[in-house]
């Protein structure tokens, strides 16, 4: 029986050739492909600067470092995300506070965040990390207004949403990661994400000061830039000016990223076509969908439905070789966070009882998709 996963990378002959030619070049790590990937990616999302790093988690960690998160920092994020969105704050000793989600979008609820901010003295919180969960872009304009009122930074976790956009109050399409409203945005190039490098990540921003800091922190806090050096002993000389990390991504993987990025736009369209077929198929059934509102360009990293018999559906699909997944087990319910905060977030917890992510990736064939749709409908005893 053929297995149908929930997500899968697409590797073409051109991708392979791109990697092979970099392998045959002089550079295995830090060569010309890193800058090319950064420049092309910045263009793709419409940001001024992009910093390529070893993975999405490293990107989050560098953001927290660049924003000077420390033991006194409290940061708000969503419970319906991958753990890394929250963990980056803990890496720097800060405290994570989870706010509940909006039941319609399943994104961090701006009103819940406002309520948290209003309940504490100004200056209690340092920042907000909204997540474009499943590829549904967060309305960052609303978060920016709130952030400005309370003097907070915003890191947009856009791992699910390269190519997605929301429409702001001036009727402008704001692409995820374009830096218009968020201070920093991050992406991942894990194989299930839109652009696959194996491991890889990117930070985008329009802020030149943050950009310089990120570049320094990515390579041990070391610089050779004559303009930045405090002293200069000669051609060999470098300085470690801050405590950084080795979060570099190799040139070979950037070659793959550059090649993948060429198909990113086309693949978002493929994802939207798949979503439209699911939407259509589940019309007039008890299967609940998360439909994007007007002005939203959903990037469909995931296609999620909500059903009461979720656990049974999960196993029924597996018996047919369909490997649907659950996104996500709420992060605030993880033992590590539960023992710190023990928050009650009823909307996120109810969402988790019902959600299931159906197969969604550019190479999913119509035939495979119909097999999935029929299996879901059959289980739900709908007519197929
Ligand atoms: C994948 C992902 C990450 C982490 O990315 P890695 O490259 O796997 O480290 C962070 N946040 C979200 C929402 C993700 O989906």
Break the fold down into its secondary structure elements and pairings.
Elements: E1 4-5, H1 13-23, H2 32-45, E2 49-53, H3 56-66, E3 74-77, H4 84-91, E4 95-98, H5 110-118, E5 127-129, H6 140-150, E6 153-157, E7 165-167, E8 173-175, E9 184-188, E10 201-205, H7 208-218, E11 222-223, E12 239-240, H8 251-261, H9 264-281, E13 288-289, E14 303-306, H10 310-319, E15 322-323, H11 335-338, H12 346-354, E16 355-358, H13 366-379
Parallel strand pairs: 1-15, 3-4, 3-5, 5-6, 6-9
Antiparallel strand pairs: 2-10, 7-8, 9-10, 11-12, 13-14, 14-16
This protein binds pyridoxal-5'-phosphate.
Pyridoxal-5'-phosphate is lined by residues 55-57, 81-82, 84-85, 131, 157, 159-160, 188, 190, 201.
Architecture overview:
With 384 residues, this protein is an alpha/beta fold. It folds into 2 domains: 4-261, Type I PLP-dependent aspartate aminotransferase-like (Major domain) (Aspartate Aminotransferase, domain 2, 3-Layer(aba) Sandwich), CATH 3.40.640.10; 264-383, Aspartate Aminotransferase, domain 1. It contains 13 helices and 16 strands. The protein has helices at 13-23, 32-45, 56-66, 84-91, 110-118, 140-150, 208-218, 251-261, 264-281, 310-319, 335-338, 346-354, 366-379, and strands spanning 4-5, 49-53, 74-77, 95-98, 127-129, 153-157, 165-167, 173-175, 184-188, 201-205, 222-223, 239-240, 288-289, 303-306, 322-323, 355-358. The strands form 5 sheets. Strands 2-10-9-6-5-3-4 form a 7-stranded mixed beta sheet, with helices on both faces. The longest helix is centred in the last third of the chain and has 18 residues, at 264-281. It is globular, with a radius of gyration of 21 Å. The mean pLDDT is 96. Residues 55-57, 81-82, 84-85, 131, 157, 159-160, 188, 190, 201 line the site of pyridoxal-5'-phosphate.
